[in-house]
């Protein structure tokens, strides 16, 4: 009885992990900007990994594989936010900006941002340079 | 039964990440998609270990997670220095 319950719980965790993973991948394809894509990939990297490895742990039982899965989960749990932070910081330093929203309301905001960051060039020139680099 | 469905879902997610890595407009999109692909590869190795009943292959997944993290940080650091020195150096595109 407890064996079937463990199998059911591990199947449920694997199913939830597959769901979050697929939603994250669809978001990675369909979101318009780089930063929203990074948000969806971050959701996928932590939550889906946690759920799938927990389901595999319930399927493994008390063995050495449980310890190895725990080590994998701990490692991904530490390194995935670090990689996301490094990626966002690198994107900010390389001046990968969001495209301006064409409603007319962004004019004072861009003026204040260019006034605040006096060392940078304008965003359009940097974006053109980024397009040539990409 | 659920393990096979997880395998199929992992392969679909890896294909979508590869599509984003090919179509990404900037270099950071490609790095993001490759990072996601590597994390899903670690999960794929772990699920394959349990479908084939050989749990000793989990060491490969552990080593692959280490290599993935180090490679992503290294590539990001390379592009960071490249963009930091782009103001002083003449821009030579490799296209």
Structural summary, described in words:
The complex is a heterodimer of chains A (134) and B (95). Helices cover 80% and strands 0% of the residues of chain A. Chain A has helices spanning 2-30, 34-60, 64-93, 107-116, 123-133. The termini of chain A are far apart. The model of chain A is unreliable at 106-123 (pLDDT under 50). With 95 residues, chain B is mainly alpha-helical. Helix content of chain B is 78%, strand content 0%. Chain B contains three helices and no strands. In chain B, helix 2 packs antiparallel against helix 3. Chain B is flat, with a radius of gyration of 17 Å. Chain B starts with a helix and ends in an 11-residue tail after the last helix. Chains A and B meet through helix 1, helix 2, helix 3 and helix 5 of A and helix 1, helix 2 and helix 3 of B.
Q: Report Rg of chain B.
A: 17 Å
Percent of residues in helices of chain B? over 70%
How much β-strand is present in the residues of chain A? under 5%
Distance from N terminus to C terminus of chain A (CA atoms, Å) equals 57 Å
- Shape descriptor of chain B: flat
How would you spell out the order of helices and strands of chain B? HHH
Structural class of chain A: mainly alpha
Beta strand count of chain A:
0
Largest sheet of chain A, described in full?
Answer: none
What is the average of the pLDDT values of chain B? Answer: 85
Report the biggest beta sheet of chain B as strand number plus sense, adding barrel if it closes.
none
Return residue spans of chain A where pLDDT drops below 50 for at least 5 consecutive residues: 106-123
Approximate strand percentage of chain B: under 5%
């Amino acid at each position: 009885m407890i064996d079937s319950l463990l199998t059911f719980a591990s199947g449920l965790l694997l199913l939830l992990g597959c769901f979050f993973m697929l939603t994250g991948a669809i978001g990675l394809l369909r979101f318009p900007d780089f930063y929203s894509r990074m948000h969806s990939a971050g959701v996928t990297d932590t939550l889906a990994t946690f759920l799938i490895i927990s389901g595999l742990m319930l399927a493994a039982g008390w063995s050495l594989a449980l310890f190895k899965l725990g080590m994998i989960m701990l490692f991904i749990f530490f390194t995935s936010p670090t990689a996301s932070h490094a990626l966002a910081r690198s994107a900010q330093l390389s001046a990968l900006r969001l495209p301006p929203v064409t409603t007319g309301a962004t004019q004072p905001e861009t003026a204040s941002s260019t006034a605040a960051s006096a060392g940078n060039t304008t965003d359009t020139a940097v974006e053109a340079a980024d397009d040539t680099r990409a | 039964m659920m393990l096979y469905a997880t395998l199929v879902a992992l392969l679909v997610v890896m294909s979508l990440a590869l599509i984003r890595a090919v179509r990404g407009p900037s270099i950071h999109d490609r790095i993001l998609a490759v990072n996601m692909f590597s994390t899903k590869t670690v999960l794929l190795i772990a699920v394959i270990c349990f479908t084939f009943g050989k749990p000793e292959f989990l060491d490969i997944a552990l080593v692959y997670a280490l290599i993935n993290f180090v490679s992503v940080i290294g590539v990001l650091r390379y592009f960071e220095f490249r963009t930091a020195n782009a103001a002083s150096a003449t821009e030579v595109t490799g296209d």
